[in-house]
Amino acid sequence: MLPSALTLQNYRSFPGPQHLELRPITLVYGVNNAGKSSLLRVLPLLGASVEPEVTGPLHLECSAMHGASFEDIRWSNSSTQNEVDDDKDNAHQAIRISLHWAEGEPHSIDYVFDRIESPETPLFRRLRVRTFSTKDTSGWTHARRKLLRSEEDAAALTYEIHDPTQGVLGLTSIEFEGLLPKTPAEDPRAAWLNSARLRVAELQSQVQWLRAKRQPPLRYSILPSNPRRRLQEDGSDAALLLVTRPDLRAAVSNWYERMVERRLVLTETPPAAFRTQLQHIKTGSTVDLLDSGEGMNQVLPVLCALELASIQSRSRDIRAPRILALEEPESHLHPHLQRGLVERIAQIASAEDPPRIVLETHSEYILLGVQLAIAKGILKPADVAVYWVRQQDDGRSIAELSTFDELAFPQGAWPAGVFSEDTELAREIVRARKGQK
């Protein structure tokens, strides 16, 4: 079951709390340096933090964080500190991340992270979970860490359990394997942790992040020996994914055929390589994808991620990503092709049990294409959320939610003058022409 939303506080430029819904289509807009990428990249951070062999509660070494430390991703403007927990004097030094599930029985899981400096090793500041909480229909159950000097280097730490109906249940030992809580199986006071662990573990392999600058396939790619189920964050291995998945290759090729009258073909070059090419439908002439222009190259990993998520949603296969975090999917695409891309996104998002597609974008055509899909009845208004990220004078960022009604008219925090630059430029051209007369 995919989460329906997440909440952040004291993360990056969002002192928060900041709520982000994960609808079938979630669009994130804003000017450069407003915090769009930070908001989107918390998804690959969470996905990486439930992968095997993660040694801390948050996998800050994952590629989405670009080598950032805990202090780098924690809001640290002293003039606008926000307390995420009222237990300690240094509450402003913590980060809160919550996951929410709306399908079935509503459920929430909440983490508060901080770092503790050890007197024996002052250069090492260990990242720990201060509180771990879950919420169901009976209320919140909390595990609050007890600061014990004997546990400074221990894998498992002592937590005090608070039950919504029975109050304090006592102490138990919890080890976090990434975001996954682990406790002695015989401890009845922590049985609720097993349910939370299973729910969070479902995020493993579910998040596919594609960065804004993607890499084209090599002119000659080595034939893989094993099947692929996901992409590198730069999309450089898209051709390797296609060669192992004929169903995926057909779906991706269909988009190229419809939009540019070329089919995607993989041509073997013995003894153990292949070329990724586009073949003209009418003339049969072929050209390497590498030579077909940046737009054709940049969109390939995006199409692969979308079609793979669509296939996995239909087959109920949980081994491949169904939460897509895509940066600038429109990169280098002509407006006509941007429209074709958003048409396919809308089709995938309108299916039964669709993936969650989060797009960080500057494209007006993607927004208009989504509105058109709503107006045509392809998408329901509840399928789409639009966030407008803006940064205030004190450096804090706010992501404001907008939605649409049944006729695709905007609702909520719709910014004044959005996408007005083209109109203003046209006016300036008129004024400049008049000034030359």
Could you explain how this protein is built, in words?
This protein is of the alpha+beta class. The protein is built from nine helices and 20 strands. The strands form three sheets. It has a nine-stranded antiparallel sheet with strand order 2-1-4-5-6-7-8-9-10, with helices on one face. Helix 6 packs parallel to helix 7 and helix 7 packs across helix 8. The model has no long low-confidence stretch (mean pLDDT 90).
Assess the beta-strand content as a share of residues: 25-35%
Low-confidence stretches: none
Distance between the termini: 65 Å
CA gyration radius, whole angstroms: 24 Å
The structural class is alpha+beta
What topology emerges from the helices and strands here?
Blueprint: E1 5-9, E2 18-21, E3 25-30, H1 36-48, H2 70-73, E4 95-101, E5 107-117, E6 125-136, E7 139-145, E8 157-163, E9 167-177, E10 180-182, H3 192-201, E11 207-210, E12 221-222, H4 238-244, H5 246-260, E13 262-269, E14 273-280, E15 286-288, H6 294-315, E16 323-327, H7 335-349, E17 356-360, H8 364-375, E18 384-391, E19 397-404, E20 410-412, H9 421-436
Parallel strand pairs: 3-17, 3-18, 11-16, 16-17
Antiparallel strand pairs: 1-2, 1-4, 4-5, 5-6, 6-7, 7-8, 8-9, 9-10, 12-14, 13-14, 14-15, 18-19, 19-20
Helix pairs in contact: 5-6, 6-7, 7-8
From the structure above, extract its key features:
9-stranded antiparallel β-sheet; 7-stranded mixed β-sheet; alpha+beta
Question: Summed up, what is this model?
Answer:
This protein has helices at 36-48, 70-73, 192-201, 238-244, 246-260, 294-315, 335-349, 364-375, 421-436, and strands at 5-9, 18-21, 25-30, 95-101, 107-117, 125-136, 139-145, 157-163, 167-177, 180-182, 207-210, 221-222, 262-269, 273-280, 286-288, 323-327, 356-360, 384-391, 397-404, 410-412. It is α+β, with helices and mostly antiparallel strands.
